[in-house]
Design brief:
Layout: H1 9-60, H2 66-70, E1 80-82, E2 92-93, H3 95-108, E3 114-120, E4 131-132, H4 136-140, H5 143-147, E5 157-166, E6 172-180, H6 183-224, H7 240-285, H8 291-315, E7 325-328, H9 329-342, E8 346-349, E9 356-359, H10 361-378, E10 381-389, E11 392-399, H11 433-443, E12 447-452, E13 458-465
Parallel strand pairs: 4-6, 8-10
Antiparallel strand pairs: 1-6, 2-3, 3-5, 5-6, 7-9, 10-11, 11-13, 12-13
Helix pairs in contact: 1-3, 1-6, 6-7, 7-8, 9-10, 10-11
Length: 466
């Protein structure tokens, strides 16, 4: 069902309208069919009533009686006279037609004490010679009558109507009339009607949908590709509501850009105002004679400087001025691995074939440093592998450390939350490494996934779009 359901708003509206029209036409077809069936029954009963009234009118005017008159031509049908009604108890009585027949007889001046009408699928054998309309097709298909403009054979016979009327002397006069099915005409009418309705409604809806969806698609694309600081606003087009939405989006993007510009100015001021006294403090600390105390103070200043750098990098991530360009990711990983190897750390990495991805090299290098640094910090070694999965490049960093409890994995990406409880950078870090790494990955359209290995340790997977 989901495969048949369109994803776009216009497609969903058109599908709903089409289904509702189809449902309405289905109901209309049922009502139309029942109406046609009723009309067929009324036409057949009218012919039977008229035949009975015609016979009694000729009898009343002194013309040949009904029995002799019925023998004069098969075209008009013969009337059956007898002591009992041709409508029996096992037939489907039609009270409404009986009431109409009685009123018709009254209007024609014929009086009957009882009138019965019924519909049957098959004509009883005793009524086989008392049928109206049974030979109409033969008469119409006669070459002479066809040459005179008579129409083709009527629709097939679907049943019969039997009408019986009781005279004042107790005698019953009965006649049967053919009920003909006009289904082909009904089907053609419904098909033509359905096609007409669909053309008159769906074509304007399609045009209206395109008129509405075009600016919405532009707005969606603009929202996906939104970059703070863009000077060009989206053109206002479409219906008034859509124009108002685009205008609100342009205003919002302008306010967001202004806020980010103010934030960058503030961050620049904070970075300058904090780094200047830290640099001066570092110079003063260098003059302390006691080596142990001097090293501790220098380490504290470096911790503050690194933490400040992480905070500023995370805050400025969405406003990076570094362009994206194709980079060989395997060569980039090898460069980072060499940095850690030169510091005496043990890493395992086997460079394979070239893998090109369009990235901001400086940011991705920083994310890799953070992941590899965590692996070395909490484990003895780090194993780096690269795999390609579809349109994603998976950079996997495994360590042999203690891992992370399953319930805390998601929380590890929160700022300033560390796997080690102490505030010592040598054992716990600043708590911003994973936060910054994931932000960099998501800024590139990828992500970072943490999971515990079955053999022990933690696996960090950095995915990047190829």
């Amino acid at each position: 069902m989901r495969r048949l359901w369109p994803n776009s708003l216009v497609g969903q509206i058109l599908l709903i309208v089409a289904l509702m029209l189809l449902l309405a036409q289905g109901i209309n077809a049922v009502l139309f069919y029942r109406g046609a069936q009723t009309q067929n029954l009324v036409e057949a009963s009218t012919s039977a009533v008229a035949r009975i009234a015609f016979g009694f009118e000729r009898q009343a005017t002194g013309r040949p009686d009904a029995r002799s008159m019925a023998m004069r031509g098969r075209r008009w049908g013969r009337l059956k006279f007898g002591p009992e009604s041709a409508v029996t108890a096992d037939m489907n009585r039609l009270p409404e037609l009986e009431a109409r027949a009685g009123q018709a007889f009254v209007n024609m001046g014929a009086e009957f004490s009882d009138i019965r009408a019924a519909s049957v699928r098959r004509l009883p054998s005793d009524m086989a010679n008392y049928v109206i309309g049974a030979n109409r097709g033969h008469w119409r298909n006669n070459p002479i009558n066809r040459s005179m403009g008579a129409r083709a054979t009527p629709p097939v016979i679907s049943g019969f109507i039997i009408v019986s009327a009781q005279q004042a002397d107790g005698q019953w006069v009965s006649v049967a009339s053919v009920v003909r099915q006009r289904t082909p005409l009904l089907v053609r009418t419904l098909l033509l009607q359905t096609i007409t309705i669909y053309l008159l409604m769906l074509i304007p809806l399609i045009l209206l949908g395109r008129y509405i969806s075009k600016p919405l698609k532009s707005l969606t694309a603009k929202a996906h590709s939104f970059q703070p600081g863009e000077a060009m606003d989206l053109i206002e087009q479409g219906p008034p509501d859509t124009r108002e939405l685009i205008r609100a989006f342009n205003d919002m993007s302008g306010r967001v850009s202004s806020m980010l510009d103010e934030k960058d100015v503030m961050l620049g001021a904070i970075g300058h105002d904090l780094r200047t006294p830290l640099a001066a403090l570092r110079v003063r600390v260098e003059n302390i004679e006691e080596d142990v105390e001097r090293e501790r103070m220098i380490a504290g200043i470096e911790d503050m400087d690194h933490m400040l750098d992480d905070i500023l990098s995370l805050a400025r991530l969405g406003r990076s001025t570094e362009p994206s360009y194709p980079v060989d990711v395997r060569s980039l990983i090898e460069t980072v691995v060499d940095e850690f190897t030169d510091l005496g750390h043990v890493l395992h990495y086997q460079r394979g074939e070239k893998q090109i991805a369009t990235i901001r090299e400086t940011l991705v290098r920083r994310a890799l440093r953070n992941l590899i640094g965590n692996a070395i910090l909490y484990g003895k070694t780090a194993d780096i592998t690269v795999e390609k999965s579809g349109d994603k490049l998976m950079i996997i960093v495994d360590d042999d450390g203690p891992g992370i409890p399953e319930e805390k994995i998601d929380a590890m990406f929160e700022p300033f939350l560390r796997g080690e409880a102490s505030r010592n950078r040598a054992t716990g870090g600043s708590g911003l490494g994973l936060t910054l790494a994931r932000a960099i990955a998501r800024d590139h359209g990828g992500d970072i996934i943490l999971e515990n290995r079955e053999t022990g340790g933690l696996r960090a997977t950095l995915s990047l779009p190829v």
